[in-house]
Every structure is written in C-alpha cells, then in structure tokens.
Amino acid sequence: MACGRVRGLRGGLQAVANPDYWRGHGLYLQNPCRACMTMLVIGIDVGLSGALAAVGPDGFRGLADMPVMLKSTVAKVKNEINPAALAAVLKEWTHGHADEVLIVIERTSSMPGQGVAGMFSMGDSLGCVRGVVGALGFPVEWVSSGSWKRHYG
C-alpha cells in the first residue's frame, strides 16, 4: 500500500464488489496520499465456485469467476484452482497499478458436516490463491465471511 493509511476494511467480497458500500463503509482512508486516491482493490472468494471483483476509485472495474481446471474424473473433488489463469487475471487487472493494489481475501474455515476431501480442497484453494498473490507481490487484507454476512443480514 502506498502510504499505509488504509483503515477499517469491513464487508468482505460483497463490500468490495459494491462501490457504494466501499465508499461509505468499507475501505476508508485517513488523510489519503495521492497514491491512495488511485488504489485498486481486488476481492477474492477462494472457493472453487468463488469469484474475483475489482473496484477502483472510479467504481466497479471487473468481475470474474474463479478460474478452475480439471484435477481428476474419479476423485470426490474433481476441480482445482488454475494458478496460471488466476495470475493472468490479476496481472491484466493490475497492469499499471502495481504499487496501488490491495488484495482482499475471504478467510476460510471449516463448516459442520464438511468432509475431509472438501476441507482439503478448500485449504488447497486458499494456498493456491495465497501463493499467486504473494508471488505477484501484492499486499493482502484478510476478512472473515461473518463480517460481511452480518452487514448484509
């Protein structure tokens, strides 16, 4: 982040995908520097049926389904995140904004009744997203799904 003055991110991916909420309640800046005024925020829901959303200072910039690829035709979990395709989406969206990007990733946790294969798949997906974002060098803010669910009811 350009000046380190980002405060109070609440609302998860839903907030990041909603520019009105983002401006009014989610991400706010205390005495923002010039670079923060041009910040690009990308929210990522790490599930195999998750998505990515991008919001800039001028509002909504983009939305994409999580890129997946076939892992196995016989396993319980047949797909996995495609890290090369995820990196390509992030590079395309952040072209020219490398120093002014914040990645918001939804923190995952186990759910009652979720099997071992499902939990392993979620952990693998989270690790893939974390690795791609880390390799690209973007700062990350983690948000819990409960924070945005409480806001939106």
The parts where pLDDT drops under 50 for at least 5 residues are: 1-32
Tally of individual helices? 5
Q: Give the total of beta strands.
A: 9
What's the main sheet like?
5 strands, mixed
Strand order of the largest sheet: 5-4-3-8-9
Compute the CA-based radius of gyration: 16 Å
| Helix-and-strand structural type | alpha/beta
* Helix fraction by DSSP (H/I, runs of at least 4): 25-40%
Between the first and last Cα atoms, what is the distance in angstroms?
31 Å
The arrangement of helices and strands along the chain is: EHHEEEEEEHEHEH
**How large a portion of the residues is in β-strands, by DSSP E?**
25-35%
Average pLDDT, all residues: 75
Shape: globular
Brief sketch in words of this structure:
The chain is α/β, with parallel strands linked by helices.
